[in-house]
């Protein structure tokens, strides 16, 4: 497939005229010569939004089987691109080929999961309360609830998942599954990859005979295009993964609109790992080694990277630090996604390094001449220092972490109370630690969206029970997840139909249940 550097607006390929940009290879620190990408602006947002508005009622009313077939077709078309997609993503991101192949599998699996969710129809939340004409003192009307899509959705592709959380990633898949047209703002860090995947979606829209406004892909340098997209009145919700500043900026724009809209922003998390005394006593070395593997996976560019480790001070904690440090010392420096992300990591780590009372206890292999390559680092300090130093809690977004020595369990609890909202918290414990773990759990349930036992937080399964969300600042809305089947709920709203004749009700609420979906009927769940 040829990459042309154009935007995809409905069925058209449009060359932007608001400047141009070439893709960048962070591993060679050089531009990828061809093609040059033409940047878009407000005019392209207007065109894509107008098409999305026209497509909305048609798309949301196609039979669920057809909507599901569309998601499957996107998956097939992405696989159909073949190695070209992996090679281009590798050149643009520096991520290893094997990782990108795995990520493609996750992307395709995610689309197929949402196809199943659509076919099952449970996401509609169909609920029926039959009329009670004889009820005293007043009769009850017939009341039926089903969920409808909110309207066209804007998606900001994430830099760190060029496939699984970008153009056809989790936000797009869940919004399309909900029946919402999607306009993606491609991330500048993988423009060619974005175009290839965008063309696979555009092809699927055509093949399935859907209206062209179901999908558009825009590119724009600087902030203007993204700002115009979030401000556009046709857009009814936003999916975003990226920096805290970026997410908060988009939330401000969304809230300042005459009609404010939700921004589902996944922003920053340092994913505390609690090491309990029993676990440290029995397996400090094994935990240290596994921790170093998790910390350096993907050059630490995961929202679930373990950036904070907490434990009661003891010789066993020293064993953990020694083992983690020895393992880190063997880890090669790895190319980061962009020079900007590399600079942000370096300056974040330097800030931590400069805090009085913080000691760097280990580092990875030096980057040498390798451009944009992150050297892993491990720091140690005490709980009082953490409580007094907000910089120690900032996401470093790279392979660096801070170990906190607590005096006793009460101090550990106060640090747990103190930390900001998180995507994950992890507990390493043995049976002898259960009572302490139980004391900590109520605090952790208030802090995080996912609580793991004896694992590490990197690696997010895409399934029905996954929660990839959490209190601020890990996300802007802790009531939802951006990964897993229930991510679809972000783009749905309930509508209640009162006394509508059967002929006018949506299929999911008709008395005969023609879709055979699960429904709550007069308070009882039945198929
Ligand atoms: P980013 O700077 O937040 O950018 C993400 C997307 O949002 C880009 O398309 C960007 O457009 C757009 N954007 C950002 N601020 C905007 C604004 N004020 N108005 C309109 N659009 C805006 O994230 P990034 O480029 O992926 O990486 C930068 C840093 O974000 C990293 O160093 C890391 O700290 C953090 N990050 C965190 C996660 C996580 O999962 N926790 C993931 C990725 C990145 P432009 O490119 O045109 O500015």
TrEMBL record:
Keywords from the UniProt entry: Oxidoreductase
Entry superkingdom: Bacteria
Coiled-coil region(s): none
InterPro entries tied to this protein: Ald_DH/histidinol_DH (IPR016161), Ald_DH_C (IPR016163), Ald_DH_N (IPR016162), Aldehyde_DH_dom (IPR015590), Aldehyde_DH_Superfamily (IPR050740), ALDH_KGSADH (IPR044151)
Aldehyde dehydrogenase domain span: 20-460
UniProt keyword Oxidoreductase, yes or no: yes
Name recorded for this polypeptide: Fatty aldehyde dehydrogenase
Source species: Paraburkholderia caffeinilytica
């Amino acid at each position: 497939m040829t990459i042309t550097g154009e935007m995809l607006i409905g069925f058209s390929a449009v060359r932007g005229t608001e400047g141009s940009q070439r893709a960048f290879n962070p591993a060679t620190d050089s531009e990828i010569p061809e093609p040059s990408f033409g940047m878009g602006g407000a005019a392209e947002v207007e065109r894509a939004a107008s098409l999305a508005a026209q497509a909305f009622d048609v798309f949301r009313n196609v039979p669920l089987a057809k909507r599901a077939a569309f998601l499957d077709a996107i998956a097939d078309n992405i696989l159909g691109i073949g190695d070209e997609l992996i090679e281009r993503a590798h050149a643009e991101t520096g991520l290893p080929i094997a990782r990108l192949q795995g990520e493609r599998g996750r992307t395709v699996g995610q689309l197929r999961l949402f196809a199943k969710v659509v076919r099952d129809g449970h996401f509609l939340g169909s609920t029926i309360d039959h009329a009670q004409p004889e009820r005293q003192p007043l009769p009850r009307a017939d009341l039926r609830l089903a969920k409808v899509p909110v309207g066209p959705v804007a998606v900001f592709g994430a830099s760190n998942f060029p496939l699984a959380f970008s153009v056809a990633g989790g936000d797009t898949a869940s919004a399309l599954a909900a029946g919402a047209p999607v306009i993606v703002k491609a991330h500048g860090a993988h423009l060619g990859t974005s175009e290839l995947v965008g063309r696979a979606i555009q092809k699927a829209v055509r093949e399935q005979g859907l209206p062209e406004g179901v999908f558009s892909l825009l590119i724009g340098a600087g902030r203007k295009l993204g700002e115009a997209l979030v401000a556009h009145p046709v857009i009814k919700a936003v999916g975003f993964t990226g920096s805290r500043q970026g997410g908060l900026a988009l939330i401000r724009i969304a809230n300042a609109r005459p009609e404010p809209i939700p921004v589902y922003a996944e922003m920053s998390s340092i994913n505390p790992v609690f090491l309990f005394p029993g676990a440290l006593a029995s397996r400090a070395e094994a935990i240290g080694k596994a921790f170093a593997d998790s910390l350096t996976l993907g050059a630490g560019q995961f929202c679930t990277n373990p950036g904070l480790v907490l434990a009661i001070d003891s010789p066993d904690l020293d064993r953990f630090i020694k083992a983690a440090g020895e393992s880190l010392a063997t880890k090669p420096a790895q190319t980061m996604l962009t020079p900007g992300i590399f600079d942000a990591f370096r300056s974040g780590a330097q800030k931590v390094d400069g805090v009085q009372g913080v000691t760097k206890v280990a580092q990875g292999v030096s980057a040498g001449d390798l451009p944009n390559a992150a050297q892993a680092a491990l720091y140690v300090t005490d709980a009082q220092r953490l409580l007094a130093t907000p910089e120690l809690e900032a996401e470093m977004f790279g392979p660096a972490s801070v170990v906190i020595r607590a005096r006793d369990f009460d101090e550990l609890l106060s640090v747990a109370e103190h930390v900001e909202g998180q995507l994950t918290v992890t507990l390493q414990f043995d049976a002898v630690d259960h009572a302490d773990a139980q004391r900590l759990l109520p605090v952790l349930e208030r802090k995080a969206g996912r609580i793991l036992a004896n694992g590490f937080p990197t690696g997010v399964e895409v399934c029905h029970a996954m929660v990839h969300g959490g209190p601020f600042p890990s996300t802007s809305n802790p009531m939802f997840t951006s990964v897993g089947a229930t991510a679809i709920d972000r783009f749905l709203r309930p509508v209640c139909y009162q006394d509508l004749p059967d002929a006018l009700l949506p299929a999911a609420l008709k008395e005969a249940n023609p879709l055979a979906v699960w429904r709550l009927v007069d308070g009882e769940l039945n198929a």
